[in-house]
Automatic annotation (TrEMBL):
Compartmental location: Membrane
Single GO biological process annotation from the record: oligosaccharide biosynthetic process
GO cellular component: membrane
Membrane disposition: Multi-pass membrane protein
Claim: Cell cycle is one of the keywords in the record: no
Pfam families linked: PQ-loop (PF04193)
Keyword vocabulary terms for this entry: Membrane, Repeat, Transmembrane, Transmembrane helix, Transport
Main location: membrane
Family assignment from sequence similarity: Belongs to the MPDU1 (TC 2.A.43.3) family.
Transmembrane regions listed in the UniProt entry: 20-45, 65-88, 100-118, 124-149, 203-226
Protein name: Solute carrier family 66 member 3
Length: 238
């Protein structure tokens, strides 16, 4: 596959390719189209892999130091809502399978945080209660309740990032927080913000995505700042 075939197949129509690479004309509509495509890929990548680097880092380091349990629980709630909504409305699995994968990763992260704090039984009870709650909501909750839960997922995700940022500030370090997960989250939030602005969604939804992007950027900045400071201190102590 040539570069042209790749670009035309995945990123832009042939007309835009000709405009960019033959005529060398920066056409605004084509530029926006390409950005939408790129951000679409980022959003999908974020949905599939955001939690995976964090999970792998916890397992590799055998530690969850610096990770906020409140943040993880809110993230679990945010991941549960789309799955619950899709299951309650009998959507085909292929349309929400990636959400289920993210949910499993979030469940594992919550359990590992509790486990590495020396409270394994508490973690098992927590997961049992969560499973029971999901089953009851999926089986007996009214459609209006499920819809309300689904609409609250973004607020929960923003709060999750906020609690983690607060813990980082209190601790003065980011602990086992995965920079890859934060970077994916930041890119995904930025992509959703861009797409929302293009589609001219409601003001509150757009504002929520912008806020989510800002909090993700705060987390990313904390990782960079605290690790840079740690490196400087190490060099001074040599």
């Amino acid at each position: 596959m040539t570069i042209k075939e790749f670009l035309v197949s995945f990123l832009m129509p042939e007309k835009c390719y000709e405009t960019f690479f033959v005529e060398f004309h920066p056409h605004v509509a084509c530029f926006v189209f390409v950005l939408n495509k790129i951000f679409g890929f980022w959003i999908l990548l974020d949905a599939l892999l955001e939690q995976l680097p964090q999970l792998l880092k916890i397992l590799w380091r055998r530690s969850a130091v610096g990770l906020s349990l409140t943040s993880a629980l809110l993230q679990l709630y945010a991941c549960s809502c789309p799955v619950l909504y899709a299951a309650a409305n009998s959507f085909p699995l292929y349309s929400w399978g990636e959400r289920l994968l993210t949910l499993v990763q979030s469940v594992a992260i919550v359990f590992l945080i509790v486990h590495y704090r020396g409270k394994t039984m508490k973690g098992l009870w927590l997961l049992s209660a969560y499973t029971a709650a999901m089953f009851l909501l999926g089986s007996y909750a009214a459609a209006a309740v499920v819809s309300l839960l689904h609409e609250s997922r973004l607020a929960a995700a923003i709060a999750s990032k906020g609690f983690q940022a607060r813990m980082n500030h209190i601790n003065g370090h980011t602990g086992q927080l995965s920079s890859a997960s934060v970077l994916l989250s930041c890119a995904g939030s930025l992509g959703l913000t861009f797409v929302t602005l293009q589609e001219r969604e409601s003001f509150f939804l757009t504002a929520a995505h912008i806020l989510s992007t800002c909090v993700s950027c705060v987390l990313l900045a904390q990782i960079c700042c605290y690790r840079s400071r740690k490196t400087i201190l190490k060099n001074r102590n040599r």
